[in-house]
Amino acid sequence: MTIGSSAGQARLMAGSHARNEMGWLLAVAAAFLIVHIVALAIWGRTSASQTANSRPETVSLLCD
To answer: What's the pTM?
Structure first.
C-alpha cells in the first residue's frame, strides 16, 4: 500500500465520520426541540385549566 492511498483513505474516513457526527447532532437537536414543544403544550394546557378552575365564584348581593 502506498503512502498516498493511506492518506486518501484517512481523509475519506474523517469526512465520513464528520458527516455521521453531524447527523447525530442534528437528530439530538431535533429531538430536544420536539420534547420541549410537547412539554410546553402540556404545561400550557394544565395552566389554562388551573386558571379556569381557580376563578372565584361571584356571589350575588341578594343572597343571604
So the answer is: 0.52
